[in-house]
Design brief:
Elements (H helix, E strand, L loop, with lengths): L19 H34 L3
Length: 56
């Protein structure tokens, strides 16, 4: 006979519940990464022109 406190099997199958906050954070990180590749080039050009305008 099994004791009454014996561990039981958990039901399997199906997908886990969606985690909206996690998905939003991942989407935000992807947006920042792609945006940095797009906007860093012009920022470097502006910094280069600003540094060239400084009197040495």
């Amino acid at each position: 006979m099994r004791p009454t406190g014996a561990p039981r099997l958990a039901p399997v199958g199906g997908s886990p519940p969606r985690e909206g906050l996690l998905q939003l954070c991942v989407l935000l990180c992807v947006g920042v990464t792609v945006g940095s590749f797009v906007f860093v080039g012009p920022l470097i050009d502006v910094a280069r022109h600003a540094a060239a305008a400084l009197p040495l």
